[in-house]
Amino acid sequence: MRKLTENKLVLASHNEGKLVEITELLKLFGKSVISAGDLGFDEPPETENTFEGNARIKAHYAAKTSGIPALSDDSGLQVQALGNAPGVYSADWAETPDGRDFDLAMAKVWDALKQTNAAEPFKARFICVLCIAWPDGHDEIFRGTVEGSIVWPKRGAHGFGYDPIFQPIGLDQTFGEVDPTLKHEMSHRADAFTKLTLGCFGD
Ligand code: IMP
């Protein structure tokens, strides 16, 4: 596995919630990051139907355009009773003509669940795939998960996206209610980051 020896990297994401979480996690390893948005890069179309495929598209585009290593995050929510939807389309479920609306996306998840015969707990998981790509075309991929269930009505104002309706196993609070430090310790992103740091940081 290739090591990340550079101390500076581009974060290939325009999602504010992810940028905040990833910058915090990377600071712990002495890595400074600049976001693709701050560099004026566009968002390449996510045309693949897997988290890995879309993570690769974003990281390779930012690495080639900037000339330094780039890190991308492709993530989403899988709800078991919905056949793992919204999955790679998690951000799309929030699209409106005026931008993304996650209250709407969470209501869509609940409406879809009500139309199934599923019984509680409504099992769900968050998935996070991180890709580090180098300008020469090499990449490394890491997948992290956190298991839990969908709750309704939504609870809490921390985090982003679907956090207020996701309750991880072992807690009676949603990711929207818990202190962000706790989310950072146990989330799908934390799991993928642990794998990335074990693989690509250090000797
Ligand atoms: P993408 O990876 O940019 O295609 O979008 C992933 C989408 O999944 C985000 O816009 C969120 O809706 C959702 N998502 C990913 N990670 C989280 C998380 O930690 N909390 C809540 N929602 C998330």
Question: Could you give a quick summary of the protein structure above?
Answer:
The protein is of the alpha+beta class and 203 residues long. 30% of the residues lie in helices and 25% in strands.
Task: Offer a few descriptive terms.
203 residues; alpha+beta; seven-stranded mixed beta sheet; binds inosinic acid
Helical proportion?
A: 25-40%
How many strands, which pairing sense, and closed or not: the largest β-sheet?
Answer: 7 strands, mixed
> Order of SSEs, N→C?
EHEHEEEEHEEEHH
How many angstroms separate the termini? 11 Å
Query: Which ligands accompany this protein?
Result: inosinic acid
Class from helix and strand fractions: alpha+beta
Tell me about this structure.
The protein is built from 5 helices and 9 strands. The protein has about 200 residues and is of the alpha+beta class. The strands form 2 sheets. Strands 1, 2, 3, 4, 7, 8 and 9 form a 7-stranded mixed beta sheet that branches. The chain has a two-stranded antiparallel sheet with strand order 5-6. The longest helix is centred in the first third of the chain and has 16 residues, at about 50-65. It binds inosinic acid (IMP). Inosinic acid (IMP) binds near residues 46, 75, 76 and 187.
Topology of this structure?
Elements: E1 8-11, H1 16-27, E2 32-35, H2 51-66, E3 70-79, E4 85-86, E5 95-96, E6 99-100, H3 102-114, E7 122-133, E8 139-150, E9 166-168, H4 180-186, H5 188-200
Parallel strand pairs: 1-2, 1-3
Antiparallel strand pairs: 3-4, 3-7, 5-6, 7-8, 8-9
Helix pairs in contact: 4-5
The chain binds inosinic acid.
